Description:
This protein has helices at residues 2-18, 32-52, 84-102, 135-144, and strands at 21-27, 57-63, 107-111, 129-132, 148-152. With 153 residues, the chain is of the alpha/beta class. It has a single domain (25-152), classed as Hypothetical Protein Ychn, Chain: A, CATH 3.40.1260.10. Strands 4-3-2-1-5 form a five-stranded parallel β-sheet, sandwiched between helices. Helix 2 (32-52) packs parallel to helix 3 (84-102). The longest helix is centred in the first third of the chain and has 21 residues, at 32-52. The radius of gyration is 18 Å and the shape is globular. The relative contact order is 0.19.
Amino acid sequence: xxxxxxxxxxxxxxxxxxxxxxxxxxxxxxxxxxxxxxxxxxxxxxxxxxxxxxxxxxxxxxxxxxxxxxxxxxxxxxxxxxxxxxxxxxxxxxxxxxxxxxxxxxxxxxxxxxxxxxxxxxxxxxxxxxxxxxxxxxxxxxxxxxxxxxxxx
Length: 153
């Protein structure tokens, strides 16, 4: 009986792994409502859908352009200090984004090439974001790993 249960568990694990869907979001928007709708809400909804189908959804978000602002430790210490809407909602927003990483296992990759243009250094970025050489590399790598591509601009 134990062998049967173990075999069934292994088969279920392998079947779920084979049924995993993968998506990479190309995040460039600086617009807070767009970010909330197309990243924060959409990823949760998409994860729930795939779980209801007994599938996993592997999510990567590649950050560049105007989207840097959402991933700073403290936007008031950056060029985004004049973005009143962002500053007003940032404490809640920061928690929601962090939960995407911890609860939903979302991988965040940031374009390192554009950071200097915005006066950003690695120390300015939240710890769960991985800095990569440039956004193109992140997008190429994920698309070559058969991730579906979704632009968010």
